[in-house]
Design brief:
Layout lengths: L5 E8 L5 H11 L17 H6 L8 E9 L2 E9 L9 H9 L3 E7 L6 H12 L3 E7 L8 H12 L7 E2 L11 H8 L12 E10 L3 E10 L2 E2 L3 E4 L5 E3 L2 E5 L3 E3 L2 E2 L4 E5 L13 E4 L17 E7 L5 H14 L4 E7 L3 E8 L2 H14 L2 E3 L6 E5 L4 E4 L13 E16 L3 H10 L3 E7 L4 E9 H5 L2 H8 L5 E11 L2 E8 L2 E2 L5 E4 H18 L7 E7 L2 E8 L15 H16 L1 E4 L2 E4 H7 L4
Helix pairs in contact: 7-8, 12-14
The structure holds guanosine-5'-triphosphate (GTP).
């Protein structure tokens, strides 16, 4: 296939607007997959993916389609380069888009433009891609395509004549999609006579083949048997296998300029496969492709085995997971309260949730309150980067002279009646309003700068609940800003529990301390001695609760001598104990740690 017969495109959309369904229909239409076999991956979707309606792992595929272009009937090779559907992966999205010359911007005909539509549009726009607007779900009774077309015109200056109207459900309008891709998206511009340069898009670990990388050949060609090098790591590899995803791997032995496919090269771990890296011919001299960025971790959390003996099991479970997700950082850490565990770094919140959920399927774990990376400066001029609040001394020898925290720019789109609620929420979360406008008569568009810390803790759930699920939200990383931060310690019977320490803004410390202490009182069961629960800043106690002593006897509830019932209760009590963590002499149930995550 000469480059002029190749098209590379991506589908971008707000969650649930129909990206995966549309992709499946296009693959069916071209005979790439059989009808009704469209969603094999649906079954192993994680709960969190289903709950939030997003796909985490992208599915890239090559299809073939005949089309009469300028009077000649030609077969085109069309690559659908899939992108992960969440803001945490915006870097991965930007790299996938770098392999494309155009996008389908899918918008739900009833919901209209949402926060991720805006974010994704600008990613495509900045990458100079042709944008084909696709108004999907026109079969819905509440569909109002004209309104959506109007929004696209006023917000992105997209020509109303260019919009395609489709229903990925009924199939209406789908026949126009591939012709539009072929006619409106230019072929890949690379040079076949230049030395090989290819962009690494994604990777995963396969038990039989080892690490499989998805790549886009920008210039030159890639052949089996050749040797390639990585610009990011300097490592070299033999090309063992090359082919296309159709959507299963099909060996072709070669990928030509403009093609998207896979390569197996004996990499030992996906950690060697950096998204956005340039792979080139061994020993040739080429400029790396622009835009590569090393992974940046925005959220950290500790994970510990729920009962101390399981450390090895946890270790194995984590190794297995990171094998397929090289973007999680893992470092051993130890906590006085929880023992041996790991500090993991994530690209963002959803990334963290997905990881925790996968981990919990494999092993009982306790995860600590997530933290963002802070910077503290002391009076001797030294600066420390804090990824774990426990690392910050409660009574430092040096005075803290300044602290900084990461911020984000959030885009929120909501029906206008919720504007007041959003303003209240964002100001509680220390947000600064940057923009407030209307995208049409019923919908408002707001931009806020918010400390990352404030959205890490339960922001998304609260946003959804105060707007009855109607808000859409997206954010991008912004600068660090100076902030008045303090470490908040939790003490049980006078002993600080390092794993419960958090860093908060000074003005919120009192309220957060109060709430934490109350939550703990509710979730810790009474024990045989009195428990004093306190929150403190340095040596100053700011909140206190007392849990009085009680002898807990589950059998007291049993009348008579029914032995099976007695056994059941004892079993249940044992089961409950498994999920406990003994800190000092106090047993803390796993839920208490979970509940702490919700205090902001
Ligand atoms: P992720 O893949 O999870 O990121 O979401 P998505 O944007 O790809 O949406 P998806 O294709 O999973 O579709 C979301 C829901 O909308 C599913 O329940 C689909 O069945 C439904 N859906 C998709 N297209 C249409 C359509 O044209 N009409 C109607 N009525 N429903 C549709």
């Amino acid at each position: 296939y000469p480059s002029e017969n190749i098209r590379n495109f991506s589908i971008i959309a707000h969650v649930d607007h129909g990206k995966s369904t549309l992709a499946d229909r296009l693959l069916e239409l071209t005979g790439t997959i059989r009808k009704g076999h469209g969603q094999p991956q649906y079954l192993d979707k994680l709960q969190v993916e289903r709950e939030r309606g997003i796909t985490v792992k992208a599915q890239t595929a090559t299809m073939f389609h005949r089309h009469n272009l300028h009077g000649t009937d030609t077969e085109f090779l069309i690559n659908l380069v899939d992108t992960p559907g969440h803001v945490d992966f915006s870097y991965e999205v930007s790299r996938s888009l770098a392999a494309c010359q155009g996008v389908l911007l899918v918008v739900d005909a009833a919901q209209g433009v949402q926060a991720q539509t805006v974010a994704n549009f600008y990613l495509a726009f900045e990458a100079n891609l042709s944008v084909i607007p696709v108004i999907n779900k026109i079969d819905q009774p509440t569909a109002d395509p004209d309104r959506v077309i109007e929004q696209l015109k006023s917000m992105f200056d997209l020509d109303p004549k260019e919009a395609l109207l489709t229903s990925a459900k009924t199939g209406q309008g789908l026949e126009q999609v591939l012709p539009a891709v072929i006619e409106r998206i230019p072929p890949p511009p690379g040079k076949s006579s230049s030395p090989l340069r290819m962009l690494l898009l994604d990777s995963y670990y396969d038990e039989y083949k080892g690490v499989i990388c998805h790549v886009a050949v920008v210039d030159g060609a890639l052949r089996k048997g050749e040797k390639i090098s990585s610009a990011a790591t300097g490592q070299s590899y033999d090309v063992l296998d090359v082919g296309i995803m159709h959507p299963e791997l099909i060996q072709t032995g070669v990928l030509l300029t403009g093609q998207v496919g896979y390569v197996v090269s004996g990499m030992r771990s996906t950690k060697e496969a950096r998204v956005g890296d340039t792979l080139y011919q061994y020993r040739s001299v080429v400029d790396p492709l622009p835009g590569f960025k090393p992974v940046k971790h925005m959220v950290f959390s500790g994970v510990y085995p729920a009962d101390g003996s399981d450390f090895e099991a946890l270790n194995i479970a984590i190794e297995k997971l990171t094998c397929n997700d090289a973007s999680v950082s893992v470092a051993k850490e130890s906590s006085t309260a929880l023992g041996l565990g790991f500090r993991c770094g994530f690209l963002g919140l959803l990334h963290m949730d997905v990881f925790h959920q996968r981990l919990e399927q494999a092993s009982h774990v306790i995860s600590t309150v997530p933290t963002v990376p802070y910077i503290f400066e002391y009076s001797d001029g030294s600066k420390v980067h804090i990824q774990n609040p426990a690392m910050l001394p409660s009574n430092p020898k040096q005075r803290v002279t300044a602290c900084w925290e990461p911020t984000v720019i959030a885009t929120i789109i909501i029906p206008s009646e919720y504007v007041g609620a959003i303003i209240t929420l964002c100001s509680e979360r220390r947000g600064e309003q940057l923009e407030y406008s209307f995208i049409d008569s019923q919908r408002a568009f707001m931009k806020y700068r918010l400390p990352l810390r404030e959205i890490v803790v339960d922001f998304y759930n609260e946003l959804k609940s105060i707007t009855s699920g109607y808000a859409s939200f997206d954010y991008e990383e912004a600068d660090y800003q100076a902030s008045d931060l303090v470490k908040l310690d939790i003490l049980l019977n006078g002993q600080p529990v390092d794993a419960m320490a958090t860093i908060v803004h000074r003005l919120k410390a009192q309220r957060v301390g109060r709430e934490l202490v109350e939550k703990l009182k509710k979730f810790i069961d009474r024990q045989m001695f009195e428990i004093i629960i306190q929150a403190a800043i340095g040596s100053k106690i700011i909140a206190r609760e007392t849990l009085s002593a009680m002898r807990k006897n589950v059998l007291a509830k049993c009348y008579g001598g029914d032995i099976t019932r007695k056994k059941k209760l004892l079993e249940k009590q044992k089961e409950g104990k498994k999920r406990m963590k003994r800190v000092g002499s106090v047993d803390i149930p796993q839920e208490a740690f979970h509940e702490l995550l919700k205090v902001s």
